[in-house]
DNA sequence: CCTACCGATCGGTAGG
DNA sequence: CCTACCGATCGGTAGG
């Protein structure tokens, strides 16, 4: 029962993240699971209700798993060493890139961003504002610690994290480019610290 | 006749760029123009044929209008003054952002990038590779002219143009943010030149 | 450009 | 969870 309900949610997100909500039919969802379309309505009262519950799941998962909203920079001990910082950030990128739930949610938000106002706002929050705020605080801390030079922290954060969001989107679209992209990311981070490092 | 055919192409791109190809129906296209669905088939043999012709138009328009593939850097006189460079780039961004054809094409490619292999490749080419190559050559030239310091030109170009592509996407999604975004872009470009300027 | 129609599929319901 | 069904709409065709 609960198993089937979860299967419906998972399969629906799979399909929504590739084809979009409208272009995914209830039959397609049902067939993918191996049940009849009518049976979906034992678990959800409508197609919209499936999407609503997926959105709830995304919000919940995000609040639980995302560093971007959960980090208390006062308690985090930031490594002083640039190599260590690069390593930490690479790990974060690998997680965001491959966590099956996060990556599918991200793709769905990209697809639905122009026709669903709720998902549009969510896309801006999760994949722009929260990320930018996180890295702005991170860079402010590095400036305070005299690791980076004192410039506009928001602009520095933009230059740091926005190229990475483009590369993540590129990997979502063409996963075969991942190695090439990770190399670019690595070079980019090193270059960033080289140019903004104090002294 | 030809007028109606062009109307069909325009209206279809309008709708495809918001809802996507699959989720846009032939009736919706016809009703938006004010004709009957069956009449569409006097101009196009199928819904797919409309998309194919739109893709051809995008390719043609892009080849004709895009700086990113048409610039011969040997003949372009790059302004030495950073303020002049900032101004030129802002003009380019304004054009890309508001040209009705380019902006709709860009939105459609974003929406269709995960389920249509042709549009997926086109998205990577037009909105990543060509842009990055263009700015890599631009920065190489500025390095040659002793305006910028000598670092990896591709990485510098990434740091320069990829944040801007994110901001353009943000404006596509939330046009009311345009002023705020243009301010960020301006600060970003100035910061970039401040940090990479020679001497 | 239209009316009238096709079979297939859409989201959803009844009833078991 | 199923079969059987609903009206509406899908992409597309015939014929004028």
From TrEMBL, chains A, B:
It comes from the Bacteria. PANTHER family: ACREF/ENVCD OPERON REPRESSOR-RELATED (PTHR43479), ACREF_ENVCD OPERON REPRESSOR-RELATED (PTHR43479:SF11). InterPro entries: Homeodomain-like_sf, HTH-type_Tx_Regulator, HTH_TetR. This is TetR/AcrR family transcriptional regulator. GO terms for molecular function: DNA binding. It comes from Floccifex porci. Residues 25-44 bind DNA. The keyword Transferase does not apply. The keyword Ribonucleoprotein does not apply. It holds the Pfam family TetR_N. SUPFAM superfamilies: Homeodomain-like. Residues 2-62 form the HTH tetR-type domain. Keywords: DNA-binding.
